């Protein structure tokens, strides 16, 4: 007898996975649950999706549709087949501006649609905080709303039609029907006719109960949308599909109304020393018809100040408020907007509402505020502890006019249970996101969580509220629906589900599942965690277990901008996301997979496309450092399976360069020969690239013969990295000339590799040995107060970021790390200090130049691009713009490896290469990373300059 796996693989063009690694990857979302599926299907087309449903129905295997899996209720988790629509079913099929609608496949990302609509002056109404990765199918499933629901409402207010595959494999199109069309549908002797007859029967039977029990509040997404059936509007089953969490069918196409964008917007920030006091002013603020009215509490604000992902973005904060209200308003033009803002500010000041109200009109400044608001969830989850700000009463919703008295009682209740919580939310709509800190590994805490849900649900009923204002029921809240809706409506829900899905195959266990056992938690009291013995020191992360467990599954690594995650940006595959890597490690730590899997091929495959860009360490709100964990994994994997010659060669590039340097001309000629390239191919190195040329003279040789001016009375150390020493000494020479011109004598310690290449390849013993040698060299050369200037970002930032984890804490050199790292600066950081204090007397010519800057991943992640950009913009005649690129795709040796070449170039094509090709031929491209410059050369044929090189060339151009 053929298996379902065989049937699927034979009949589907897309991917079918039943391996343990992929199943574990798809067993989590952003909730507290972990449910391992039977298998995963990634359909390539609607036909693929239809075949998968038909095969699943034949075998009576449940189906759960999944997009970006940003949901926090467990709604997209299931024990059957997971259907991932995000990779291929992501086409925008129609944009009809004249008639104001769009038709999209379920995998379309919210922000991608808005980018297409924006030039026409339109947008999708609902705007979730996860809009840079949330898919429309997921937004349909949980009836998404977002911060601007005061103006735009929820998905149910915009959905016109939905094409849906039922569990039996039938495809039906649901939309608004006239009375005549409804009668025609009801007369059909088909599944469709049966559904319509049941819908009308349910409406007529339960109308009074729907009127009585459905909350009359702006936000409610619990249960099924039976209230849509009793509105004075044509019957539209697409409104029932919305918010049904995929339990009635899988949408293949969604037709939605689009909305005009506000013509001119501004933001008023109100600061309060008491949260309840802030909430008391919500009714008055609603009178100004804001687009959005949001709140953030002091816990999120303080965590935001410390978060690397929000570095430099909170300069608008005033004092230390206990609560911040964000009021966004709009006008037909700037004049009307400013008049409305003046009236609002006058009212606030006269009535002494809050303190220091601030009006913002600048888009960039307003974006900084929204970044803090959108990061609220992730920031709360960045705490390095098993006591986490978890989602179980995170979505409570009441009438906004009752919000202050409700929250006063709610906060008192929290205090009575000894709990604190981060609180934020859509206060204008009465929807609050509250995340108490709970340790799910404690039986007492788990029992308290269930008790709190029961108590809070009672309080919500007292105020006519709902347990969910926008996130849905999922696995976390469905068991409380009988209490919230009553037994009669629960029966109506059951009858509705049965009409669409009589065999309960579509995402079972959601909305009408009533178990409160929480058997499928990610962390639970009975588990015994497995802690692999690590080579690197993970004390800073709270240990290796927490380093991996910090991933909360919010899926920010699926976004398509900035650094994190380059491999996902190129492949659009969950398997190659940071979340997938962290979850694979978690599966081993939590005992879902054996400890031996820590050195398995399956884990290697998940880790393989991690480029060690360090983007996740900064851009992930939980600061998951996957680069460090990959190095640790590679060490264990290779200790078990052996180290390849290729890895050893790349790890020892500095020593190889030293050996070959006396034969530089011969080496440069040799490695370009066809037979040499074939030999390198046998080692796993691509023949599509040339290895970096060796310079005819080492930088240290030039330096030893160079006479610096005698009048210099200040000194700095210049870190002589491997690439500067052997490949590009002209960059070091330019830096010496620049620093001399600033009055600094440059001290260059003897060359010693920092260990970055070995660290990247997992040769940790070699990396530690090299790091110790460099530390000794720097410690011996470091004069009192002198700074260490780095030219290659990967080298100087390896010292600053990796040495504490690489050097044994018992090593005598360990205490020196803090001193040395405190002295390390990139060249642009050092030069910018002189611009800022007015001691930057270099006589640059006032000659115009167009400059485009690409930042090295480590610099963007750990330092930021502001030093480079601010420095360049301080020079007269420089017109500077930053290329909106993430990782260049080279990533040290990654882009030289045969199996990685194609994806390396694909990453370059995402942003970097197209922007450079569009630039004028005389535009200077500045890229401080050696790998970045080589990638730019290979991908565009353009020669990029190092910052030192560019500044020195400009200085000489008198």
How would you portray this structure in words?
With 958 residues, the protein is α/β, with parallel strands linked by helices. 43% of the residues lie in helices and 14% in strands. It contains 44 helices and 27 strands. Strands 13, 14, 15, 16, 17, 18, 19 and 20 form an eight-stranded antiparallel sheet that branches. Strands 5-6-11-8-9-10 form a six-stranded antiparallel sheet. Strands 1-2-4-3 form a four-stranded mixed sheet, with helices on one face. Strand 8 and strand 9 (171-177) form a beta hairpin. The mean pLDDT is 94.
How are the elements arranged and paired?
Layout: H1 4-11, E1 15-17, H2 20-25, E2 39-42, H3 46-59, E3 63-66, E4 81-84, E5 92-96, E6 101-104, H4 110-117, E7 122-123, H5 136-141, H6 149-152, E8 159-165, E9 171-177, H7 179-186, H8 191-213, E10 235-236, H9 238-241, E11 250-257, E12 259-260, E13 264-272, H10 275-280, H11 282-286, E14 292-297, H12 298-306, E15 323-331, H13 334-350, E16 355-360, H14 363-374, H15 376-380, E17 387-389, E18 396-397, H16 403-416, E19 421-426, E20 431-439, H17 443-462, H18 474-477, H19 481-485, H20 487-500, H21 544-549, H22 566-571, H23 578-589, H24 601-607, H25 615-619, H26 626-641, H27 645-651, H28 653-660, H29 664-670, H30 674-682, H31 699-705, E21 714-719, H32 722-726, H33 729-741, E22 744-747, H34 756-760, H35 764-781, E23 788-790, H36 793-806, H37 814-823, E24 824-826, H38 827-836, E25 849-854, H39 857-863, H40 866-873, E26 878-882, H41 901-910, H42 912-918, E27 924-927, H43 930-940, H44 947-956
Parallel strand pairs: 2-4, 3-4, 21-22, 21-23, 23-24, 25-26, 25-27
Antiparallel strand pairs: 1-2, 5-6, 6-11, 7-12, 8-9, 8-11, 9-10, 13-15, 13-16, 14-15, 14-19, 17-20, 18-20, 19-20
Helix pairs in contact: 1-3, 7-8, 8-20, 31-33, 33-44, 36-37, 36-39, 38-40
